[in-house]
Amino acid sequence: MSPPNTSETLRWVGDAEGYLVLIDQARLPMELVELECRDAQTVWEAIRELKVRGAPAIGLAAAYGVCLGLQSMRDRDAAAFHARLQDVTDFLASSRPTAVNLFWALERMKTVVDRHRHERSAARLHDALFTEARFLHDEDRATCHAIGRHGADRLPDGAGVLTHCNAGGLAASEYGTALSVLFTAQDQGKRLHVFVDETRPLLQGARLTAWELVRRRLPATLICDSMAAQVMREGRVQVVITGADRIAANGDTANKIGTYSVAVLAHAHQIPFYVAAPCSTFDLSLAGGDGIPIEQRAPEEITHGFGRQTAPDGIQVYNPAFDVTPARYITGIITERGVIAPVTADNVARLVADRQAP
Ligand code: MRU
Asked: Which of 6, 9, 100, 235 has the smallest C-beta neighbourhood within 10 Å, fewest atoms?
């Protein structure tokens, strides 16, 4: 029996006047519960509170959030529709700063309406937005599978593979990005063993990646982030693969906090370190990683993780949610168009430049 696919992270119910349903990722793995979103505010909160998270999934949620935010404008005039579109996209853009897929998806939605600028019917403009959101979702499914196909060759049969955070179906559509490479190799009959960093402080590895791998029956071992060096030293890891939230023009890559240390460790142990990401995760407006905005999150995520106090009152806390791995530590970036290796500005431009314009 083939392993089950991962659940649908996002699904839309009904026509343009329907609503969005998300898996509430904050409640996994103990509960598989869905959350209905019937307005842009609920989508904003879901993104902010990591009920939907992972760069591509955030972008898709925002695209559907635009549809929700404009539903009440269907019988208004076009000028009012355009004004609300700007407000709604600005609002959704304020939810989280690092994953560029959010801004990319919002631009795609605005571009659709620009293309219909002579359209006087707000209902037809709204239909066009809905069609674009569905298109982005379908495109993401195909993109994730293509990333898997391009990356699977990089995993030798019998390999130990370490991953950080969650770049699976929960973070995108169906197979995800980094996990798509693993799932595709598994579909090809390769035997793999995955080491899953728990991913402090919000445990996306322990809660989400481990959940996906168990469902797929892909052999996996959960480790604390601080154990990665020892596991590498013991020779158990042949490849590292992670996702990305934003990749600068030179290949510097922002991903979940802790990714940079994993990359340095991989370099020290001469283990190839791959990033898997769609072209929509590149931000060619930034020459290097220093310009990537890094989200700062609440101190309580560290002092009171999952509701239990584990640090004294009064301690200062620093809680950046992402870090930037310099391109020199990245063996290759696996995209839906192929693998960028070595990771240089020229090679990045060659593969993704024309994908940036919506
Ligand atoms: O804070 P999160 O859980 O949204 O961080 C997610 C990551 O860092 C993922 O690795 C990244 O978005 C890639 S998802 C395909």
From this structure: 235
